[in-house]
Write a structure and sequence with these properties.
The chain is an all-alpha fold and about 280 residues long. The chain has a single domain, classed as Growth Hormone, Chain: A, CATH 1.20.1250. It contains ten helices and two strands; from the N terminus they run αααβαααααααβ. The chain has a two-stranded antiparallel ribbon with strand order 1-2. α7 runs parallel beside α9.
């Protein structure tokens, strides 16, 4: 909500925010692999924890609260017909649940998947971390590209073709190994990370300023609840049939993302009022 309230181009700002956030995801695989190999697994928790607390304290001390009363968002907005809002809500809930579950499951499972399936390439935890980090970088770059597209086209025009990416790559990755698996993993993270940008932009474009913070709160409550459940789901599916069963199950779940993109309604472009001083 803070980013949207200042955004001149909503898609670009959401994309940039996603890039930085998911470069953190990418670096986590690299840092964990390196620290775990050379300092031990405990330091892989301690060092990121210390850095995170320091960043939070720095933000709290340096960022000054601004009174936003009387200000309006200057970015162009999109609206949908009132009778079509239920389609937006249903589509958003479906995509948030499916993508949050899949995103977190992939984040949790990818290092283990690489350790099992890339044995012919390397068994070094540090090098596996480098490979995982490089895969995540593709996903982060996708978020910026999707953000730029959102500024030029409707959300449906962007999300519909994007929705066809995840399920096939998840299905294929279930039986691949070595270099083909790395290529499939790149497709998976590009599809998942791109959908995260679409989800955030959907809330930003379709909600009024006074309701936007509440809408994002609901979106992240649903998303984090689904993401938390995914950890147990990954363990259960892996126990039943390994990565084949797990990845096929999430491929089936991501078919719902296609249905959600199809039911999105057409947008009605409106010009947002200029910000008042």
């Amino acid at each position: 909500a803070m980013i949207v309230s200042y955004a001149d181009r909503l898609g670009r700002e959401m994309g940039l925010n996603g890039v930085w956030g998911n470069l953190g995801v990418a670096s986590s695989a690299l840092v964990t692999g390196l620290v775990g190999q050379y300092l031990g697994w405990r330091w892989a928790f301690i060092i990121p924890g210390i850095v995170t607390v320091m960043i939070g304290l720095t933000f709290m001390r340096t960022v000054v609260h601004e009174n936003r009363s009387g200000h309006r968002q200057a970015a162009a907005q999109a609206r949908v017909a009132r009778e079509d809002m239920w389609r937006v809500i249903v589509a958003l809930l479906i995509v948030v649940i499916a993508i949050s579950t899949t995103f977190n499951a992939v984040t949790v499972a990818l290092p283990k998947l690489f350790a099992e399936r890339l044995a012919e390439l390397t068994e070094s935890p540090a090098l596996l971390g480098v490979i995982a980090a490089c895969v995540y970088v593709f996903g982060a770059a996708t978020q910026y590209t999707i953000g730029k597209l959102i500024d030029r086209y409707s959300l449906k025009a962007v999300s519909l073709p994007l929705s066809f990416v995840l399920a096939p790559f998840l299905y294929l990755a279930a039986t691949l190994s070595n270099l083909p698996l790395i290529i499939a993993a790149i497709g998976i993270v590009m599809g998942a990370f791109g959908q995260v940008t679409v989800n955030d932009a959907m809330v930003g474009k379709y909600t009024s300023e006074e309701w936007r913070s509440r809408a994002y709160a609901v979106r992240y409550f649903v998303g984090f609840t689904a993401a938390g459940a995914s950890v147990g789901l990954v363990a259960s599916l892996y126990q039943q049939g390994g990565f084949v069963t797990m990845l096929h199950a999430f491929a089936g779940l991501c078919l719902l993302v296609i249905a959600a993109a199809i039911i999105l309604p057409a947008e009605i472009k409106v010009r947002a009022p200029e910000a008042n001083s």
